[in-house]
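Async update (no meeting this week)

Hi team, since we skipped the sync, here's where things stand on the single-chain job. The sequence we agreed to prioritize is pasted below, unchanged from the tracker. I ran it this morning and attached the output directly underneath so nobody has to dig for it. Comments welcome in thread, and please keep replies under the output.
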Amino acid sequence: MLYNINMSQLVKYQKGKTRFEIITQPGSVRKYSDKLDNLTKNDLNYILESDFIYTNSKKGNQAKKEDLERVFGSSDLLVCVKTMLSRGSSQTSSKERHDDSDQKKKEILTYLNKNYLDPKTGYPHPVIRLETSIKNIKYVIDPKKGSDTQAKEIIKSLHGNLFFKENSQTYELVISNEYKGSSNIIYGLTSVTSKKKERGKTKYVINVVPGNNDTFLKKLNELSQGDYQMKILT
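Output:
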């Protein structure tokens, strides 16, 4: 099989001192990453550029059958490839990096638009205004970093150019002190404006932005099995 290693993507997998490599077609790792449980031999035609497992693909050194059987429990190509795709490390193409960055930018813009208001108007900043402002400050989007974290960094960087006010809902929350992890959830996902302990329980007044609401309620319910009281204040 002919292939251009400069255009292909290399997947590496190391077990102890032994390293294995497969040469894959551009974009195929991402395309098939969610289908590994149902991967077939026929799929390998669309994943692999070369039907071999190497110890050093640049030198053309192929892995020995006994090493494959020792590490993967089989020398069958499909078995080995499935393991390497699920546990190995792969290169990312320039197109994939661009797509990831573009997707992350959209997530950040959505987060800012949904969770923050322009204090001058009481309405969210338009997405086009946010996008232009981020471009002007030359903020570099990190595809692997959380959208909420980067959104907060952008707000700090934009201080003096754009102003933001949290678009939050205020609640009163009462929860038993027996749920030891509750304070981590509350302080991690809300803004606490007051806290008062009373008769084995703690009463909080909290502000929750829309982007954190579902995660906050899910974690609180998982911890307490719904054993708390919560009502809207404003």
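Quick observations from my side:
The first helix runs from residue 28 to 32.
DSSP finds nine helices and eleven strands in the chain.
Reply here if anything looks off.
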